[in-house]
Design goal:
The protein is mainly alpha-helical. Among the domains are: about 35 residues, no CATH class; about 55 residues, ROS/MUCR transcriptional regulator protein (Arc Repressor Mutant, subunit A), CATH 1.10.10. Helices cover about 35% and strands about 0% of the residues. The chain is built from 5 helices and 2 strands; from the N terminus they run ααββααα. It has a two-stranded antiparallel sheet. α1 crosses α2. The longest helix is centred in the N-terminal third of the chain and has 14 residues. It is flat, with a radius of gyration of 36 Å. The protein starts with 11 loop residues before the first helix and ends in a 35-residue tail after the last helix.
Length: about 160
């Protein structure tokens, strides 16, 4: 059966009743009234229609092939990079959690190439990052006063004659 794309008939009196009720309870400018009428008519015409079914997004490459030793591939556009975090934010407006949710990826899905992570880890360990410093025993408090300071009041100045 062929579907006709003609808009369904909308009772204009129903539109008038809805708009007049809205205007009675809200303040709107005169130039916004025509837009309000059009919006109400469009909403009533769209009642009962089934929204079009959106197909699930298709990745640019298969998910299993998106992780390589030297790079990772963005599932949105196929961009190859060592780290996808900035690319996702700038090019697609997604953070890592939204990206993983959109593509139904596990929480431990990497957005950094494995070789890059290993290289950064090795470099950080060579610089001794992440190690705690040796705990030094506190030195006992000294009872000596610093040189140049005297105890007591300031000496008096001699009175002028």
């Amino acid at each position: 059966m062929v579907e006709h794309s003609s808009p369904p008939w909308v009772d204009p009196y129903q539109v008038v009743r809805i708009v007049s009720s809205y205007v009675r309870h809200h303040q709107i400018a005169a130039n916004e009234l025509a837009g309000l009428i059009v919006d109400v008519h469009r909403a009533l015409a769209g009642l009962g229609r089934v929204p079009p079914v959106q197909e699930p997004p298709r990745p640019a490459v298969p998910i299993r092939q998106s992780i390589r030793q030297d790079y990772v591939v963005c599932l949105e556009c196929g961009f190859r990079a060592q780290m996808l975090r900035r690319h996702l934010r700038v090019a697609h407006g997604l953070d890592v959690a939204a990206y993983r949710t959109r593509w139904n990826l596990p929480a431990d899905y990497p957005v950094t190439a494995p070789a890059y992570s290993t290289r950064r880890s090795t470099m950080a360990k060579a610089m001794r990052f992440g190690r705690r410093r040796a705990i030094k025993e506190p030195s006992p408090p000294t009872t000596e006063r610093p040189a140049g300071r005297r105890r007591g009041r300031r000496p008096r100045r001699p009175l002028p004659p």
